[in-house]
Amino acid sequence: MGAALALLAAIIAFLLFFDWNWLRGPIGRYASAQLKREVVITGDLRVHPWSLSPKVEAYGLRIGQPSWTRQLESNAAPMAQVQRVAVQIKLLPLLRGQTVLPFLAIDRPDLRLLRAKDGRANWTFGTARSDKPLKLPIVQRLIVNDGALRVDDRQRGALFVGQVNARERADDRQGRFVLEGKGSLNRSPFLAEIMGGPLLNISPSRPYPFQADVRAGATRIRAQGQITRPFDLSRFETQLNVAGADLNRLHDLTGLTLPNTPPYRISGQLVRKGARYDFKNLAGRIGDSDIGGDLFVLTDRERPYLEAQLRSRRLDFDDLGSLVGAAPATGRGETASAGQKVEAAQRDATRRLLPDATLQVERVRAMDAKVSYRAETVNAPNLPLRKVSLDMTLNAGVLTLDPLAFTFSRGDLRGKVRLDARPATPRTDIDVRLTNGRLEEFIPIQNGGKPVITGPVMARAKLTGVGNSVRRAASTADGVVTVVAPKGEIRQAFAELLGVNASKGLLLLLSDSDKQTSVRCAVADFSVKDGVMTTNHLVADTGVVLARGRGTINLATEQMAFRIEGDSKKPRLVRVFVPISIKGPFMEPRVSLQPGKAAGQGGVAAALGSLINPVAALLPFLTAGEAKDADCAGLVAQARQQGAPVRVTQTTPARGR
After folding, report:
1. H or E element: which one contains 94?
2. Burial of 43 from C-beta contacts in 10 A (0-12 / 13-18 / 19+)
């Protein structure tokens, strides 16, 4: 008995007079071996063991970087430097395998977190994944004073530099725990505030309610929910509201590759269970279009995986342009951010149609996805568009839209788009077909409420281009484009003017005649090489005029140049042989007459008239109408071979007069 008392007295004396600083070296060496990086305590080590909740204080704690970071930064600062850390731990729960910290205080910490492009992160140890859900011990009182934080996430391309503080705040009759962070995220202002009930009341058996408000540049995220198991951040559920200028900017916060969009606001219920995030009952607006549906994200794969079922009751067609980098429309009532308005002004000033926004290929390669989207109705001025649907997959850097479908009032445009972002220069393949379209819907010229031209129209475009923007891919495109109208009707006045028939066409126009003539066929067939579309056939065969043309469309410069010549099929008194010229940019083409032939024609007439008689002056303007019918059957058959979905039996309607 005496020996036991003596041993107890010796232990007590040892604990009372022992200099705990002697253990700084052994503790540092042990921690360094376990964490695979240098750990040192440069200040005092103080231990207060006389309690069921002993307390330890360490001053001047420094944790170095893992060795692989030297490949990225040769003189990288330590991962962590802390002026003081103080921690208490309850012994009785520890015996049951549960870690409970009544008190944790961290003074003036300076943390420098780094994740490389290959996913290695300095905040993980051993073989743990950098995106593994964080599970913390139960902390009943947490204080962080004047914390400095730098997060350099090179996998996401995100850099945060700022300050962090955590404390209990008096709020009405009870305290609240508040975690605050402020600074800059990719050079944009960042502010985050997370609030919850007092940590002292936390129980592992009860969910912990919280609120969060995060602002990153123009993006704002508000959440109100609960952590299912306190301090186990792998399980929570919250009502989430997100608003911002562009969904693409959420990449810095989430790591997800989202499309460029006009300003948006969406809400829904976010539930996390381990590596799965479910965003349920999503609802809101993107630009001037409503959006709804469900999606989920898996983070335990080689690349994050997103799957979504989305829908719009009413899609504003202008909002789709942002998906390919086009600035949204900025007219009255249109929704666009300040930056997008600047882009739109530049587009309008240069009169360019094809967008030149650079594709973020690194982001396309960094995520997989499967998305289905349906728009029940579409607001598309000047287009007879009624519905839009697409199924999109993104797998290992290859994005595929198949099918991509646009439903018109009459007719459908369906096809497939494949973007391969794996090469240094992305490659885009497009194959689309217009089936059962109507000329009067795409050429909505009216005469007294009646369409000037009617009839079916079919088309196919099959193109391949390389480049990291729509404009660059178009400027290198190779392929074919074919448009065919196998039959129809046209107002005879316009048909006559295709042959510049001064007598008949002008008289019909002046008389406001609505007389119709047949369209036997119309075919525009182009070969595309290095971004230049060159006509193989450009033919419009009507009952009274056969018009042929040739020309080019340059997708790189967005310029067109066409020459169209028409011949009458009927005798006409005054027929001026003047080719029609269509030249200029896509946005403002100029239609003009080339007077060279007409001047020559008139000069000959004047000479004959002076030598013979006045009647002879009319001879150059007379035509016997000898133009023959085009081989419509052959042209339509060739268009069908090019892939144009022609299903109409070719007939030869009676000619007009």
Report:
1. helix 91-95
2. middle
Number of other residues whose CB lies within 10 A of the CB of residue 486: 26
User: Three-state SS for 452?
Assistant: coil
Q: Say how far apart CA 338 and CA 367 lie, in whole Å.
A: 29
**Pair of tokens at residue 504:** 């008949």
DSSP for residue 330: -
Q: How far apart are CA 208 and CA 197, in angstroms?
A: 8
Locate tokens 């010549």: which residue? 565
Torsion of CA 637, 643, 644, 648, to 10 degrees: 50
Amino acid at 483: V
Q: What is the pLDDT of residues 530-582, one digit of tens each?
A: 999 999 989 888 887 888 899 999 999 999 999 988 777 655 544 445 678 88
Place of tokens 């969009």: 261
Beta bridge partner(s), residue 81: 62, 110
The full DSSP string for 213-233 is EEEETTEEEEEEEEESSTTBT
DSSP code of 145?
E
Distance of alpha carbon 260 from its chain centroid, rounded? 3
Q: What is the per-residue pLDDT across 98-120, written as a single tens digit (0 to 9) for each?
A: 888 899 999 999 999 999 988 88
Token pair 């990225």: residue: 72
Tokens of residue 182, six digits: 């402020």
Q: The pTM is what?
A: 0.82
Query: DSSP per residue over 572-636, as a string?
Result: BSS-----EEEEEESSS-EEEE-THHHHHHHHHHHHHHHHS-GGGGGGGG-B---PPPP-HHHHH
Give the chain's radius of gyration (CA, Å).
37
Q: Are 283 and 276 in contact (CB under 8 A)?
A: no
* Distance between CA atoms of residues 586 and 107, nearest Å: 64
